[in-house]
Amino acid sequence: MTGGVLRAQGLSKAFGGLAVLDGVELEAQAGQVLAVLGPSGCGKSTLLRLLAGFEPPSSGAVLLDGAPVSGPSPSRGMVAQAGGLFPWLSLRDNLAFGPRASHRPAAEVRAAVDDLLGATGLDGFADALPKQLSGGMRQRAAIAQVLANRPPVLLLDEPFGALDAQTRLRMHEWLLDLLAERPTTTVLVTHDVEEALLLGDRLCLLSNRPARVVDEQPVPFGRERGRAVLSDPAFVRMKAAVLERVLAA
Amino acid sequence: MTGGLLEQGLTSGTTAGQVPPGGPVRRRSRRVLGVLAPLALLGLWVLVSARGVVSTRLLPSPLTVADAAREFFFGTSTVTLAGVVPFAGAGVDHLSASLARCAVSWGLAVVVGTAVGLLLGVSAWARDLLDPVLNALRAVPLFAWLPLVLIWFGIGESSARALIFLGALWPVLVAVGDSTARVPRAHVETARMLGTPRRDLWRRVHLPSALPEVVTGLRLSLTLAWTCVIVGELSGVRTGVGAMMNAARESGRTEQVLVGILVFAAVGLLADLLLRALTARWVRWASG
């Protein structure tokens, strides 16, 4: 499984008279991470909600492997800043929620959940409630909950935005490892330039509201980047340049 | 890849057996406080009846009432005329008749209240349609239903059950309706995104998410059902604690009326404790 190709085609969205997205064109390639950067309040989250199918576009379309999508679906798993864990379910039941909803056999669900508990380093917390986990653990679990459905596309809306800087850096390295093991087309919406450059294969820059794509470029650092890349002079230069562009957008 | 990634273990302080603020000593002393008030009330009662402040016809002494209670539960039953509500030795019969009535009616109220409440909570359309009617019906006092229920169901068991049902229905219906309508949209969206069909949302998201408030509604409803037993037993039934009290009032046996009140209080308290214990594991995620 290498993930699907997710395409936004002339995607526009207006709430009442307020135009939020204005003909957004972007493509997340199979198995790659597309980092979407933009100024605060530019409509990044709305874009992701449209890609997830939570909101219908005013015009334009979302295509997964060429076929238009409508409504939320397990094929596009989304994780927001506050995570999607159900507070009344144990971690194990949270991870099993998706596979059970699609009536997968119990043994298969159990195996998938055990696998994900391992991949998230949460083996010891299978029976804990979400409120008993730290913020970083909760976000890892929320991503695992979505991945339990083996979605071709993963949509991340500032997933680490509420975490402290050290935890966030650990989460970045963890996510890179996870996606290396399970190639999944990922759209990552963030306002954090460092996060975008650290995780993204391509970078997509949005303008102020109503958002349009103003720039798209590949991220020229290999997939094997850990925190070491943060002190690479090329990384530092690019980070400064991209930040300038975001602030000017 | 997980080396150094694991954060610290469980965050402290959410387990069930946790010591409340102030430590175990404070907790014990607070339990003592809870026993103090009834003891003081009993003392006052002893004092008032010993001094003869109030006529024994209005307020018999605690000993008289204790005697009556013993006779009620353990006395030898005397054969009574048909149509006369028995007292001596009839305690268990009356109590079980009331409990059965309450259980049947409350059970039905829980089922109907949960079903209609879920409909209101899940469907805005049903809410707009039914809310005004239900709110108006809810405002009708239980005693106002009594004549109509007697006309519809006649004197006896069915009327008693119908009245208890009406008393117990609204707290469940309102608790389920309000709490399921307030389920965060993010939970519904997450469930949909994870592949839950629309028709399963009520049992996968709405009901579990609302459960703590539903349990509060169930407790309120059970207490109300139990208090409505006395109204239900005004419908002319010959058994039940309420029927016994009505008969005792007619023959001026104040001590028997007081026995009934004490039985109602004790059973109500025990039923609530039992329900809390049974539902504790449903609400643990929301406590603390």
Describe the structure.
The complex is a heterodimer of chains A (249) and B (288). With 249 residues, chain A is of the alpha/beta class. Chain A contains 7 helices and 10 strands. Chain A has helices spanning 44-52, 91-101, 106-119, 135-147, 165-181, 193-199, 233-248, and strands spanning 6-15, 18-28, 33-37, 59-64, 67-68, 76-79, 153-157, 185-190, 202-206, 213-218. In chain A, a hairpin with a 2-residue loop joins strand 4 and strand 5 (67-68). The longest helix of chain A has 17 residues, at 165-181. Helices cover 72% and strands 0% of the residues of chain B. Chain B is built from 10 helices and no strands. Chain B starts with 22 loop residues before the first helix and ends in a 5-residue tail after the last helix.
What are the defining features of this structure?
heterodimer, A: 249 residues, alpha/beta, 4-stranded antiparallel beta sheet, 7 helices, 10 strands, B: 288 residues, mainly alpha
Query: Which outline of chain B best applies?
Result: globular
Order of helices and strands of chain A, N to C? EEEHEEEHHHEHEHEEH
Oligomer: heterodimer
Distance between the termini of chain A: 36 Å
Largest interface, with counts of residues having CB < 8 Å to the other chain, equals: A-B, 40 and 31 residues
Number of helices of chain A: 7
Number-wise, the strands of chain B total 0
Radius of gyration of chain B over all CA atoms, rounded: 24 Å
Instruction: Determine the structural class of chain A based on helices, strands and strand pairing.
Output: alpha/beta
The sequence of SSEs of chain B as H and E is HHHHHHHHHH
How much is the average pLDDT of chain B? 86
Number of strands of chain A: 10
Given the structure, what is the number of helices of chain B? 10
Largest beta sheet of chain A: what is the strand line-up?
6-7-8-3-9-10
Helix content of chain B: over 70%
How would you describe the shape of chain A? globular
How does the major sheet of chain B shape up? none
User: Which percent range fits the helix content of chain A?
Assistant: 25-40%
